[in-house]
Specification:
With 79 residues, the chain is mainly alpha-helical. It is built from four helices and two strands, in the order βααααβ. It has helices spanning 5-14, 18-23, 29-36, 43-53; strands at 2-3, 62-63. It has a two-stranded antiparallel ribbon with strand order 1-2. GO terms for molecular function: DNA binding.
Length: 79
């Protein structure tokens, strides 16, 4: 699971708005929306953001292990 919470913190520290990224840096609004929802974005987008914000990947995103899937019960066994 990926969280882009650090992106918003980094942008705030550097005084960069979503408007600036969309209108002046040509980051698409759909990519911004995907980042807000912690959805998949390409490594190209991550690289572009790091370049624009002059930061490292860890300043933009955090990777967490996926939660454990629920145990599967054996519904085929006969009593």
């Amino acid at each position: 699971m990926v969280s882009y919470e650090r992106l918003w913190e980094t942008m705030k520290k550097k005084g960069i708005s979503q408007y600036y990224l969309i209108h002046y840096c040509k980051v698409s609004s759909s990519q911004i929306d995907r980042l807000k929802k912690n959805c998949y974005v390409s490594t190209h987008t991550i690289e572009k953001l790091c370049f624009l914000l002059e930061c490292n990947v860890e300043d933009i995103m955090t990777v967490y292990p996926d939660p454990e899937p629920p145990a599967v019960s054996d519904s085929t066994s006969q009593n």
